[in-house]
Every structure is written in C-alpha cells, then in structure tokens.
C-alpha cells in the first residue's frame, strides 16, 4: 500500500482525489480510515478509494502514513495505531503540531509536517512543508508530488510554518471576509445581492489571474487601475486613511501568534 490516510475529511478527500486524478497512484494503492461512517462514505464516493473504520490491520502495510485528523483529536488517533513498519514516512497536515511532538508520537523522525490550505480542494492549493531529521530529498519529492497535484508546494524550515499558517493557511478566510464586505458595500450602493456578489467574485478571480500570469506586481497593477483624482483613487484614499496595510499586518501577526500557541498546546 502506497498511502494510508488517517482521517477522511475534506482535505484528505481532496488530496486523495488529486493523487488518483493525476495518476500518481491508483485507487487500489491507497486506503483511508475514519471512525465516522458518513466521512467514510463521502470519501469513497468522491475518490473511489476504500475507507475503513479501523487502521490496525493496515498500518504495517503502508509505505506512507498521511495524518489528516483535527489537531484536537490527533493524540488519541495516533495512540490508537499499532507501531509503524521500519522506514514508513509520516506526513502530517494537522495544523500547529510540531515535528518534535509528531516524532514522539510515531517514534520516528522520518516525518514531514505540511501546512495546506482549503483551495487545495479545487486544485488551487498553496502548501508548504518542513522535513523531519530523517526525511531526505526522496521524502521531499513525495510531498512535492502529492501536494503539487493540487496547487503549489514549497519547502520551508519548520520555524516558518507559523507564518505560512497565518498567511496562506488562514488566508482564504480573510479573502472570504473581504468578498462579503465588498458585496455588502455593493448592495448598499444600490446593486442586488446576487449581482453584487457575482461582480465581486469575478473581480477577485480576474485580479488573481492577472497576478498569476505575472502581468505586473501588485503595486504596478493597482497603479494601472488608478487615475489621479479618479474613482479608484478615492477608494484607495479611504483604505490608506484606515491604515489598511497595518490592519492586514496585525491580522497575519495575530494568526501567527495563535499558531505558535496551538503548537505549545495552549
């Protein structure tokens, strides 16, 4: 067995589906385990991969264990597992759990800690990973291949993962909040809720695509839209007066500090 997923939630489902879709491994080479029947049924329906209730009979057969449970239940989930076979790679997508703690749980340092984000579910993920002491270049390649099937994957040092968590891990929520605020503002300006949301979403998607195609830096693209004393300039003046950039800096810093606290078990 190539990969055993411990947990069959949305992120595990997206990863498994990407692995199969991009022919990294076949469905028959993968297996998942989850204690909740609805999660098992949804996982299999979406991926075509078998999902069972108990991992005890499969852990020793897995080349890679992918831990994909909520951080709060991770200690219990790992404690219920039998010992790994020698040489097994562990990949964890549990937010905030450091490599040292994972190593103690699994009794191995052949571990990769990953911070993915939810756009992974639509093939637009931004994932970063850090290697444990015994995870070599071949292990890194496995992580890059799996995560890269659903977006971008970048290797970082573990001390950078709290910043990654604050920026790309939590970042989708910031954009969703901004979309809601812009759409509400459009309604207040006289548009219907449906049209305002549609325009907001398309504007965000188009703007992101311009950045992805490297049509300019954020500053250059902003300036290209902004005419002196025009409508855009008027809106940007309000953002500047509200110290919008400082606000976003505070947002990311608060999330980073909370990520550190979670890693400390607080």
Describe this structure as you would to a colleague:
With 266 residues, the chain is of the alpha/beta class. It folds into 2 domains: 163 residues, NAD(P)-binding Rossmann-like Domain (Rossmann fold); 92 residues, ProC C-terminal domain-like fold, CATH 1.10.3730. The chain has 11 helices and 8 strands. It has an 8-stranded mixed beta sheet with strand order 3-2-1-4-5-6-7-8, sandwiched between helices. Helix 6 packs across helix 11. The chain is elongated.
Concise summary:
The protein has 266 residues and is α/β, with parallel strands linked by helices. Helix content is 51%, strand content 13%.
Q: Helix-strand pattern, N to C?
A: EHEHEEHEHEEHEHHHHHH
Number of helices: 11
CATH class wording of the largest domain: Alpha Beta
CATH superfamily of the largest domain: NAD(P)-binding Rossmann-like Domain
**Remind me, CATH topology of the largest domain?**
Rossmann fold
N-end to C-end Cα span: 36 Å
Kindly state the mean pLDDT as a whole number? 95
Largest β sheet strand count, sense and barrel closure: 8 strands, mixed
Portion in helices: 40-55%
* Mass-distribution shape: elongated
The Cα radius of gyration reads 21 Å
**pLDDT below 50 for ≥5 consecutive residues: which ranges?**
none
**Would you count the extended β strands for me?**
8
Strand portion, in percent? 5-15%
Number of domains: 2
| Strand order in space, largest sheet | 3-2-1-4-5-6-7-8
List the helices and strands and how they pair.
Elements: E1 3-6, H1 10-21, E2 30-33, H2 37-47, E3 51-52, E4 64-67, H3 74-79, E5 89-92, H4 99-106, E6 111-115, E7 125-131, H5 137-148, E8 151-155, H6 161-169, H7 171-188, H8 193-212, H9 218-225, H10 231-241, H11 244-263
Parallel strand pairs: 1-2, 1-4, 2-3, 4-5, 5-6, 7-8
Antiparallel strand pairs: 6-7
Helix pairs in contact: 1-2, 6-11, 7-8
């Amino acid at each position: 067995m190539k990969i055993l997923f411990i947990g069959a939630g949305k992120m595990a489902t997206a990863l498994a589906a990407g692995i199969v879709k991009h022919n990294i491994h076949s469905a028959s080479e993968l297996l998942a385990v989850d204690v909740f029947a609805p999660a098992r049924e949804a996982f299999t329906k979406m991926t075509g991969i078998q999902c069972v209730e108990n991992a005890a009979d499969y852990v020793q057969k897995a080349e890679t264990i992918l831990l994909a449970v909520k951080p709060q239940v991770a200690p219990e989930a790992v404690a219920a597992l039998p010992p790994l076979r020698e040489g097994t790679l562990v990949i964890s997508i549990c937010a905030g759990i450091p490599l040292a703690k994972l190593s103690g749980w699994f009794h191995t340092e052949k571990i990769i800690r990953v911070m993915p984000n939810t756009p992974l579910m639509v093939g637009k993920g931004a994932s970063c990973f850090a290697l444990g002491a015994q995870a070599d270049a071949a292990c890194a390649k496995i992580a890059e291949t799996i995560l890269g099937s659903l977006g971008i994957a970048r290797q970082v040092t573990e001390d950078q993962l709290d910043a990654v968590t604050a920026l790309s891990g939590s970042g989708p929520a910031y954009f969703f909040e901004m979309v809601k605020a812009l759409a509400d503002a459009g309604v207040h300006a006289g548009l219907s809720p449906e049209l305002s949301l549609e325009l907001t979403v398309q504007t965000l998607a188009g703007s992101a695509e311009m950045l992805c195609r490297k049509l300019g830096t954020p500053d250059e693209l902003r300036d290209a839209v902004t005419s002196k004393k025009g409508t855009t300039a008027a809106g940007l003046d309000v953002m500047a007066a509200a110290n919008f950039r400082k606000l976003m800096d505070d947002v990311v810093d608060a999330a980073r500090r909370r990520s550190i606290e979670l890693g400390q078990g607080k």
